[in-house]
Amino acid sequence: MNLNNVLARHGLARATALWVALLLAPGALAQEAPAEPASGTSARTLDGLEVGTTEGGAVRITMTLSQPAPEPVVFSVDKPARVSLDLADTKLAVPERFKRVNAGRVRSVAAAEASGRTRIVIEMSELAPYTVRTDGSQVILEIQGGTTGTTTTSGGAGPAGVASRVLSVDFRRGEKGEGRVIVKLADPRTIVDVREEGNRVLAQFRNTDVELELQKRLDVLDFATPVKFIDILREGRNTSIYLTPVTGIDFEQVAYQAQDTFTIELQPIPEDAEEKRKKEQVFVGERISLSFQNIDVRALLQIIGDVSGNNVVISDGVKGELAMRLINVPWDQALDIILRTKGLGMQQQGNVMLIAPLDEIASRARAEGEA
Questions:
Q1: Cβ proximity of 131 and 141 under 8 Å
Q2: What is the pLDDT of residue 293?
Q3: N or C: which end of the chain has fewer CB within 10 A?
């Protein structure tokens, strides 16, 4: 029985059907066949999906697998508000694939299987901070009841299980006038919570130390970006970096992580956005948040295809893994960051995106020109 039939049986509203359609978008299914399991190995299955609440009022979703849990890939979308969690090389064996919850900000939980992976989608009234951790054969997702934000961790450690350190804090002005704060971390698994607090943007690095000489205020007004001050503080067990914007400047906040480097950007919004759009690339895709450790690049590009609604054709030359965290970033900007990080290019025809290494794209263009 497919997921659509299960949802119809439970009388799900049209809005929920839309995000289920996204869950099963052709970008994830049509372009690559599921990998065959290695000879002599048993397939991992998701056997249990339980939903409950904690004493603190958080909604806890516990996923129990038949074998040790893989590193989950977590991403979220603002509109409609939902958190999605992918389990690679995992088949779906739970008897009930849809649960109506209506607890806290969680409305429902649904599960589906495609292309050798299982995806859990949590529909919410609005996004809230969440934590993800693995414990043996279980993956535990807790969604808080506070303000919007993302806090993720992985491995056997809980939220305070990884002691890290801020190694350096650098500031640069981007080509488009963005103020870019670059934080080097001793441990790429450091938990980071980025949110607006008053008139400032706060990046809080959980259970993380910082040397005394780095605890200071940086005056970066002369760089002519939306950032005026950067304050680096040690607050209890956490390191907090506050970005104070220039008064009267409109900006957008973007945060992302590649390996052990966490970047926060305040991007200026041009006064004449239409004129600016004619001169440079403007990212307008639906905003998403992603958090993962050492995910296969091909699987990551499939997720971008899911969110964008495009079909994705991935060249055999696309290989490797990537550790990255993106927070509230348009999907087309997330794709741009991934392509630049891995030296890839993209050609689009209609709703089909072809992704390949840059030299392969160039060779293809030369061959087409000669033809």
A1: yes
A2: 64
A3: C
- Mean pLDDT, range 100-113, rounded to an integer: 90
Given a contact cutoff of 8 angstroms between Cβ atoms, the answer to whether 113 and 91 are in contact is: yes
What element of type H or E holds 7? Answer: helix 3-9
Residue for token pair 């008064």: 247
DSSP tag of 221: G
pLDDT of residue 207: 86
End-to-end CA distance of the chain: 48
Which tokens go with 180?
């870019």
Burial letters for 74-90: b for 16+ Cβ neighbours within 10 Å, e otherwise? Answer: bbbbeeebbbbbbbbbb
Give the separation between CA 371 and CA 367, rounded to whole angstroms. 6
Q: Check: CB of residue 91 under 8 Å from CB of residue 118.
A: yes
- Tens of pLDDT, residue by residue over 164-192, are 899 999 999 988 899 999 999 998 778 78
Token pair belonging to 35: 């990998």
User: Are 4 and 16 spatial neighbours (Cβ–Cβ below 8 Å)?
Assistant: no
SS (H, E, C) 65-106: ECCCCCCCEEEEECCCCEEEEEEECEEECCCCCEEEEEECCE
Least confident of 101-110, 117-126, 185-194: 185-194
Q: How far apart are CA 329 and CA 306, in angstroms?
A: 15
225: Cβ–Cβ under 8 A, 6 or more apart, which residues? 173, 174, 177, 178, 179, 180, 246, 266, 268
